[in-house]
């Protein structure tokens, strides 16, 4: 039976061949790649595989092989521009590829409690190659056995904002509808769920109300915790272009003087403001609100507040009482006169926009803003300020979170997170559970049961639950465990313990080290197709060669097969839940899945059924409509709207699209924008952070058991830890081992996208090859370190594998814009250090050699509602490397 076949699969199989021959794990770029050998069109349309700007891309091919990438001049987002990453994205496709399913000989078996002794080892002799059939059977048997024994919620899935919508939609069906599990999370959790949950609380829907065309008509643009020039370059270039032509004022709120700050100042220093705050964003919003109410009352939109919001009275009262700029400098870190000056600019832009009927203040934000214990409050307090000054509900203004990954917006919309269903509706909504049960072809009782299954703590929580033995198995799909914090104490021991299945494209990906079964995936450009949704809600088709590296399967095909085989064994009818068949080319057709997704959206916040109406009317398929229009922005509830390219902006009075709308302008049942006062109060800082210190140092202390501490930290607007400032200024090597004087933030560098593809692409790898730490010249002088010197950046966390139990990275000191360490593009304030997490495994993913793993060192505390960790506020000390 199942048990036996698992044992059969995991038995030593001594004669099996090594993973990649006798040479071991292949050196990137060294493989000879064989393709499936199918023909395809010469030019294919796609969205860029990297950031959420979603640049229109043309994939050039020759004999079915991807050869080059060109920007699409007809795409409205990038208009023929692309950044270095997008332009060189083809370089990462045919290197270091996995081509066969791999099975670990000594697998972890949570059923018996056996923990593999070979997890974490990079030796190919610990694996054997398998056929797809064998691997699939093994996974099916094991998962069914665990579901039957421990319930569906004991199975976890960590999914991705890089997977197309069709796969995301089906994974959610697989987890919630087939397995009955609420233990489903995605890398989007680490990225922008603070925007998601903030939008929900304020607007009643996870909807960025604005679009990129608002840039060119806005009167002021802000970047909050967002180094757009490095992270969303095409967005930055559009902003910079507008500033150059129309001289609009700009604001950057960022501890560092980034390339974004410098670039805007180069255009006009007179109307470019930089607020170098550390953690003080909420206080800055409130202080600006105070200054506007006191000095520029004509900019307050009382009509909007009184008729379209709730909670404004408390907000106005508390801001007036507690947020005089002079009184909150300890939190804003900004001199009061600068807040007043900025408030005057903000007021002027708001009034201008209102007078013109378009324009005003457009606010972008990134993860320097989302990744906080109070990330949701950051979003809400910004929306409060936008509402106070009437900067919402009009073209050219509004809050606009920038999504990080190319399809994190899809992940959000398809609801692939704990407690969510597709189309912006919670699992707690009984009516929508019935709708989705019908659409998915699963019993409603299954979804009802999932609704009461808990996954406290979300992404971090599910790894903690695994450590406690509650989560027995996990699928890792297009997301890596090294994007989660505190890897040495959290994700690695958790994956070691669980039966872990990874879908991967690279041989030496870090997930493989901790997986029991590894399935080789086809990647972007190789799929049959699929859709991505970028930051302005634009669906776009990613066509592919349908000619992947031999042996690899698209992730969507893998989930369909899982649904069929596991679903059947769990008593479901595969024909009902996954009525899809492979086509002549050997792959499933993503457009069939997309049609089902569109159909299920009827009547929801993200109604897209207009696309199906157009198909009925004209015969033009959904993908073709999207290609021809270069994208359709959700919602598109009628044929007319779909033909016009969807809905550019939301909350502009057009919500009457929905015939039986239960709401008015905003998505809450009362039709109003909900204002909630958010505060920062540092009086109990030390007490709370002392408690949080136990995370990552005390193996018996779990965040999910202390959510009350996180709530306390969130409500006071704190960080997970505080540096030991008294030890700042001491010479390198003289700081006691238990003192950590510096702030240390991790973030992105322009040349690299995340941790996998660009470090394997020749061009980008060469441009920024090494881990670095940006440092203020005075800090360097006091420490006695020189530019270019290698040091250790050590944090409070443990690393049980280190001889001193220390979690650290090695990095080259980079001081200022003349540094010998590239890219040397930003400067940091005194006491604050910064490193890119993108280079985490650019040295080696092998734990025995890997010295750059940012998330070996980071704190796992998270926002209790959004689940986001604060990767920007770790305390560290610097030691010499000897
Ligand atoms: N080149 C490149 N581009 C990318 C990516 C990539 O890997 N590489 N990834 C994509 C993804 S998934 C994402 S989410 C985005 C991320 O894009 P960004 O949000 O721009 O990324 P970060 O560099 O992580 O953080 C932005 C800034 O937050 C600042 N910051 C730190 N603490 C604070 C604070 O307390 N308050 C404020 N206001 N700012 C603070 C940091 O100094 C940093 O400059 O980029 C996307 N684009
Ligand atoms: N310290 C720190 N950590 C962070 C952040 C930070 O600022 N600081 N930022 C966070 C943010 S914003 C994000 S979005 C996350 C991102 O985290 P992830 O999205 O998890 O990071 P990637 O490095 O892109 O990992 C993707 C994995 O999928 C594999 N892969 C590539 N293509 C395919 C494919 O087609 N199919 C499959 N199945 N696999 C594929 C890659 O080899 C890689 O192992 O990281 C978070 N982690
Ligand atoms: S990484 Fe982002 S800005 Fe660069 S080309 Fe791709 S989508 Fe455009
Ligand atoms: Mo992200």
From TrEMBL:
<keyword id="KW-0004">4Fe-4S</keyword>
<dbReference type="InterPro" id="IPR006656">
    <property type="entry name" value="Mopterin_OxRdtase"/>
</dbReference>
<keyword id="KW-0408">Iron</keyword>
<keyword id="KW-0479">Metal-binding</keyword>
<keyword id="KW-0560">Oxidoreductase</keyword>
<dbReference type="InterPro" id="IPR006311">
    <property type="entry name" value="TAT_signal"/>
</dbReference>
<dbReference type="Pfam" id="PF01568">
    <property type="entry name" value="Molydop_binding"/>
</dbReference>
<keyword id="KW-0411">Iron-sulfur</keyword>
<keyword id="KW-0732">Signal</keyword>
<dbReference type="InterPro" id="IPR009010">
    <property type="entry name" value="Asp_de-COase-like_dom_sf"/>
</dbReference>
<dbReference type="Pfam" id="PF00384">
    <property type="entry name" value="Molybdopterin"/>
</dbReference>
<dbReference type="InterPro" id="IPR006963">
    <property type="entry name" value="Mopterin_OxRdtase_4Fe-4S_dom"/>
</dbReference>
<protein>
    <submittedName>
        <fullName>Molybdopterin-dependent oxidoreductase</fullName>
    </submittedName>
</protein>
<dbReference type="Pfam" id="PF04879">
    <property type="entry name" value="Molybdop_Fe4S4"/>
</dbReference>
<dbReference type="InterPro" id="IPR050123">
    <property type="entry name" value="Prok_molybdopt-oxidoreductase"/>
</dbReference>
<feature type="domain" description="4Fe-4S Mo/W bis-MGD-type">
    <location>
        <begin position="41"/>
        <end position="97"/>
    </location>
</feature>
<dbReference type="InterPro" id="IPR019546">
    <property type="entry name" value="TAT_signal_bac_arc"/>
</dbReference>
<dbReference type="InterPro" id="IPR006657">
    <property type="entry name" value="MoPterin_dinucl-bd_dom"/>
</dbReference>
């Amino acid at each position: 039976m199942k048990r036996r076949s698992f044992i059969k699969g995991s038995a030593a199989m001594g004669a099996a061949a090594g993973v990649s021959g006798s040479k071991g794990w292949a050196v990137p770029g060294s493989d000879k790649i064989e393709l499936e050998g199918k023909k395809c069109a010469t030019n294919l349309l796609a969205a860029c595989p990297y950031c959420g700007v979603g640049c229109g891309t043309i994939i050039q091919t020759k004999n079915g092989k991807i050869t080059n990438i060109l920007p699409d001049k007809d795409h409205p987002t990038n208009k023929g521009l692309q950044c270095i990453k997008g332009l060189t994205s083809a370089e990462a496709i045919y290197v270091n590829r996995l081509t066969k399913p791999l099975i670990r000989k000594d697998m972890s078996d949570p059923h018996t409690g056996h923990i593999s002794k070979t997890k974490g080892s990079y030796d190919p002799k610990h694996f054997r190659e398998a056929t797809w059939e064998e691997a699939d059977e093994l996974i099916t048997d094991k998962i069914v056995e665990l579901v039957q024994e421990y319930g569906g919620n004991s199975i976890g899935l960590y999914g991705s904002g890089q997977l197309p919508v069709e796969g995301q939609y089906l994974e959610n069906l697989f987890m919630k509808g087939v397995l009955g599990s609420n233990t489903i999370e995605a890398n989007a959790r680490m990225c922008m769920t603070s925007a998601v949950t903030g939008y929900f609380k304020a607007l009643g829907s996870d909807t960025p109300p604005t679009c990129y065309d608002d840039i060119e008509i806005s009167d002021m643009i802000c970047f909050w915790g967002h180094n757009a020039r490095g992270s969303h370059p095409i967005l930055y270039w559009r902003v910079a272009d507008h500033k150059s032509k129309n001289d609009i004022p700009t604001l950057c709120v960022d501890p560092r003087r980034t390339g974004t700050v410098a670039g805007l100042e180069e255009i006009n220093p007179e109307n470019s403001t930089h607020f170098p705050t550390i953690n003080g964003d909420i206080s800055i919003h409130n202080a600006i609100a105070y200054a506007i109410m006191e000095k520029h009352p004509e900019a307050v939109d009382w009509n909007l507040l009184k008729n379209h919001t709730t909670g404004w009275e408390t907000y106005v009262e508390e801001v007036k009482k507690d947020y005089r700029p002079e009184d909150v400098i300890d939190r804003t870190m900004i001199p009061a006169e600068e807040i007043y000056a900025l408030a005057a600019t903000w007021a002027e832009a708001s009034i201008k926009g209102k007078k013109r009927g378009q324009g005003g203040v457009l606010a972008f934000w990134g993860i320097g803003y989302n990744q906080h214990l109070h990330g949701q409050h950051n979003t809400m307090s910004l929306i409060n300020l936008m509402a106070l000054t009437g900067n919402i509900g009009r073209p050219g203004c509004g809050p606009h979170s920038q999504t990080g990954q190319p399809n994190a917006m899809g992940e959000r919309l398809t609801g692939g997170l704990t407690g969510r269903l597709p189309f912006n509706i919670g699992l707690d909504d009984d009516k929508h559970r019935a709708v989705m049960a019908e659409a998915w072809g699963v019993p409603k009782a299954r979804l009802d049961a999932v609704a009461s299954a808990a996954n406290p703590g979300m992404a971090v929580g599910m790894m903690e639950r695994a450590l406690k033995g509650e989560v027995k198995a996990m699928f890792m799909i297009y997301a890596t465990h090294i994007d989660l914090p505190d890897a040495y104490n959290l994700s690695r021991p958790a994956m070691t313990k669980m039966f872990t299945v990874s879908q991967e494209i690279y041989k030496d990906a870090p997930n493989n080290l901790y997986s029991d079964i590894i399935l080789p995936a086809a990647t972007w450009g190789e799929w049959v197709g699929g859709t991505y949704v970028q930051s302005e809600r634009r669906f776009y088709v990613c066509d592919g060669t349908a000619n992947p590296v031999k042996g690899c399967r698209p992730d969507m095909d893998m989930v369909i097969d899982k649904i069929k085989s596991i679903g059947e064994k769990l008593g479901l009818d595969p024909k009902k839940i996954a009525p899809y068949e492979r086509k002549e080319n050997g792959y499933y057709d993503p457009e069939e899945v997309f049609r089902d997704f569109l159909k299920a959206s009827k009547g929801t916040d993200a109604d897209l059924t207009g696309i199906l109406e157009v198909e009925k009317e004209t015969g033009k398929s959904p993908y073709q409509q999207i290609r021809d229009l270069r994208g359709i922005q959700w919602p598109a509830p009628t044929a007319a709207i779909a033909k016009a390219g969807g809905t550019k902006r939301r909350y502009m009075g057009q919500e009457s699209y929905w015939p039986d709308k239960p709401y008015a302008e905003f998505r809450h049942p009362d039709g109003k924008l909900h204002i909630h006062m958010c505060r920062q109060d540092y009086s109990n800082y030390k007490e709370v952070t002392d408690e949080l210190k136990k995370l990552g140092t005390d193996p018996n202390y779990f965040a999910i058991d202390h959510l009350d501490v996180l709530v306390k930290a969130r409500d006071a607007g704190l960080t997970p830890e505080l540096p030991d400032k008294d030890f700042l200024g001491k010479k390198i090597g003289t700081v006691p081992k238990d003192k950590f004087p510096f702030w240390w933030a991790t973030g992105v560098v322009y040349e690299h996208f995340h941790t996998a593809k660009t470090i394997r692409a020749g061009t980008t790898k060469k441009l920024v090859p090494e881990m670095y730490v940006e440092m203020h010249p005075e800090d360097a002088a006091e420490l006695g370190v020189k530019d270019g010197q290698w040091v250790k950046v050590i944090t409070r966390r443990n690393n049980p594998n280190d001889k001193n139990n220390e979690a650290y990275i090695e990095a080259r000191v980079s001081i200022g814009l003349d540094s010998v360490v590239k890219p040397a593009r930003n400067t940091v304030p005194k006491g604050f250090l910064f490193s890119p997490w993108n280079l985490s495994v650019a040295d080696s993913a092998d734990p025995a050699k890997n010295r750059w793993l940012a998330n070996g060192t980071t704190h796992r505390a998270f926002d209790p509602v959004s689940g986001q960790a604060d990767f920007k506020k770790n305390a560290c000390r610097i030691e010499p490397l000897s």
